[in-house]
Each structure stands twice: as C-alpha cells, then as structure tokens.
C-alpha cells in the first residue's frame, strides 16, 4: 500500500459571468501558486496574475496551464481542473467532472442558479460529486439570502447548510459573518474594499459587533442568522461527501471576501482521492500499481504539429517519469518520458505524481478520452459518459475526393470530444452532434486549418440522438422498422436519430424492450 500525499482535486462549475475566472485567480493568489511566476507579491493584482499564467503558457508553447492549476496550502495540494465554461460548452466540460473528487458551484447572488450551472450540477449528481456552494458578488445588490438558499435546496433537491452570512449587500455590504467559527470578516486597507481583517467574536450577541456593524445590518444579521440556524440542516460532513448536502459560503471573489474560508472548507471537508469505479473492481488510491484514465485530449495549439496532449488523472500508485503504462484494450505499453506535470512548485523538476494529480501525456493520437492506463493493463475505469447531442448537423463535403480526410478528421475530433459523429446506416451523409453552438465553429475551422478539408454544415433532419440497447431480438426488430433513423457512433454502437424529443418519448413508449439512453458510458 502506498502512502499518498494529501490532495484535493476539484473543479468550479458555474454559469458564464458568475465569477469563475475571478475566483480561480483569487484561489491561486491565496494559495500561493502565483509565486510560480515569481512576480505577484501584493494582493488584488488579479490582472497581473492572469497575464503571468499566460506567459508561462507561451513559454511552454502549449495551452495546458489553463487546464490544471495547482496551489498549495498547509501541506495540502489543490488541483483545480478547468471546466471550459462560456459558449464553448462541450463534452469536454462534462468529462472533466469525471476526473475530480469534488466541485465548487459558483452562483451570482443576483441571478441564482442559471442554466449551465444546473446542467453541470446534474453531471455532478450522476457521480455523487460533493459540492460546496459559493454565492458570489455579495458586494453588489442581490437576492435575499433565504431566497438563494431555498432556490438551491428546491432546484437541486439538496440539503443546504449556510456556513457564512453576508452582512448587508451592495452599497450596504460590510463583511461576512462565519456562523460556525463566529469570525467576522471585514474589509481593510485604505480603500476598504478587500477582505483583510478578521475579528473573533464570542457569537452573535457579542457586544463587539455593535461597535463594528451598522445598527440596521446588525439587527438583520442577528435575526436572519437565528432563523437560519434553526431552519436549515446542521452541517454534516458525511452527507456533503455523499453529495446529499451542500454547505453554502457567501462572498465576493472580486473583493476577496470569503475566498480564504472557501479554501479552508475544501481543506477541511472536501474528499481526498477515493476509490473510483472500474472493472473488475473499484480502484483504491492506495493500490500500489499505477492506474489512471484519460479525461481530456487537447490538440497542440501549433497547427503544424499533430501532437496531442492526453490529460490523465492518476488514480493509484506513484507515477514516476519514464514509467511505462499500457492503455487497456488497445496498444502496447508507452514509455512516458516527457509527462507534463502540474503540481510541483518548480514544475520542470517534477518527476513524481500521486493519486489525484493530473499528468499531461504528449502523444500522436494513440490515446483517447476514456482510455485507462496502467502498469499491468488489468483494469478499466468506467463511467466516462458521452452525452446526447443537442444540435445535429449534416456535413457536406465541398470536394468529394476528400472523403477519407473528412472521416479521419471527424473521428479525430470525436476522440477529442470536440464533436460526436454518427454514420447513418442509409445514405452517405455523415452527421455530427454537439452540445454547444461554438463547437460547430471549432469543427469547421479545424477541418480547414488542420485537415485541409472544406466542408459546410447543413441542417440535419434530426434533432437529437439516443444510444439504444436491449436484447438482440428487440434491437433487431426496432432497427429494421426504423432503419432510416439508425446510425452508428464512432465506436460502432447503435444510435437512434430522433426528429424531436417528443419522438424519443413516443418510440420509448412503443418499444418498451429497447432502452434509449441520453448518455453512453465508455
Ligand atoms: P466567469 O465568466 O464566470 O469566469 O466570470 P468572471 O470571473 O470573468 O466575472 C464576470 C464579471 O463579474 C467580471 O466583470 C468580474 O469582474 C465580475 N465579478 C466577478 N466576481 C465579482 C464579485 O465578487 N463582485 C463584483 N462586483 N463583480 C465580480
């Protein structure tokens, strides 16, 4: 059995604009990772911090630093995996969530739970990923705290435990009160903008508070906090780690309020690497053999190089530079001589990695998303889902002599999780599927730039897709009757292309022996 160093591998889920980037920067700043670049000394220089990261990225020539960011605090290493949010919402985002042990959900205090947060949350729920909630932008006008808490509880069907409470909001914002430690987090410095001072109180009745907080805010804080303590579940670490309860922290990433408390909560409560679902049995992080799986493949930024970086989450064992690992089910062992490692203070010198760490493996397309890598090739991690595409398009080739290149390109990009590809049983019009609009633009521009294939995307007569399964007779019957709507995915699995979500419901009712799945496990 191996003794593994303490790790917290997590992702931030949020809707665009809720403050993920700002929070990431502050986490790195507070966690000391920015010292990597050796430049940022003072707090609040977020813009500098960001450009420092970009500089590292340029020096390394590939865009990998934004995929994994690492910081250390009190002997714990935090690996923050980026979930590309914004419009380029893709399966990549979803799959990254299979490589984390927990997540931080950032919501805007004025907007509450928005659509993308909700989608990402559902993915976390599929795998019971524990979630800490950070309600951001309390320095601005927002909704009532109770309204926010109740929305989280109702929409996500989770127990909520407020851990901190904002003292006023917007123009009246005075700080954050920690309901568990009775600490009051206050602004400091000449601008009184950023969190600095922490006052230890004996509780909400502490007379110190009267001298610090305005009477209106204090009366409201006392009343609200009392109601909250009586009305919401007490924090229960086990319920949180099972994905049944979310502790809720209030703060302002921009003004640095509550960021420290958030790191503290991750350190104290978020789970370290645990056993992951695999065949023939779950893999414990304490297993001696090195095992891991690829959750993301990224093409090199330089279009002249076909190199790809496969991002592997290490699940067990101690990885050492130069080690040979075998992808389960296909291929020979590969010696990993130049892994990109993210966790060490001096990145370049890192040559060991531990469970929970991410390793970037340069390769020429041999490694695919979902691959298991291990020393003995005797395990296979399960549970990396493909998602039903929400947009389907027919690919029209402008030059018919380029069919081969097109097929290669579509397969490659399906491998990377940029798009999904479906090959209909009848006809020669290949269909691609994506979960976000921007993926279509990425597809077209990469077809031209990398594969020299000019193509156009046309409306497809289908709206969504479902992977089908069931016993052989039922499948045969279904397939024969619906041949015009049948296709195979890149791995040869049967897929039903539906004209609408309504049609999915209709056929599901008519063919009770066939299972229609909106996700497919690899
Ligand atoms: P992302 O799209 O989720 O990555 O969001 P960003 O971090 O880019 O933030 C979106 C906008 O909200 C930016 O203009 C930020 O400066 C602003 N913002 C982020 N956090 C806060 C906050 O705590 N308070 C205020 N007032 N603005 C914030």
From TrEMBL:
Pfam families: EF-G_D2, GTP_EFTU, RF3_C. The lineage of its organism: Bacteria, Pseudomonadati, Pseudomonadota, Alphaproteobacteria, Sphingomonadales. Its main location: cytoplasm. It is found in: Cytoplasm. Keywords: Cytoplasm, GTP-binding, Nucleotide-binding, Protein biosynthesis. One of its GO terms (molecular function) is GTP binding. It comes from Stakelama tenebrarum. This is Peptide chain release factor 3. GO terms for biological process: regulation of translational termination. One of its GO terms (cellular component) is cytosol. Residues 5-274 form the Tr-type G domain. Increases the formation of ribosomal termination complexes and stimulates activities of RF-1 and RF-2. It binds guanine nucleotides and has strong preference for UGA stop codons. It may interact directly with the ribosome. The stimulation of RF-1 and RF-2 is significantly reduced by GTP and GDP, but not by GMP. The keyword Heme does not apply. GTP binds at residues 14-21, 82-86, 136-139. It comes from the Bacteria. The keyword Transmembrane does not apply. InterPro entries: EF-G-like_DII, EFG_III/V, G_TR_CS, P-loop_NTPase, PrfC, RF3_C, RF3_dom_3_sf, RF3_GTP-bd. Belongs to the TRAFAC class translation factor GTPase superfamily. Classic translation factor GTPase family. PrfC subfamily. The gene is prfC.
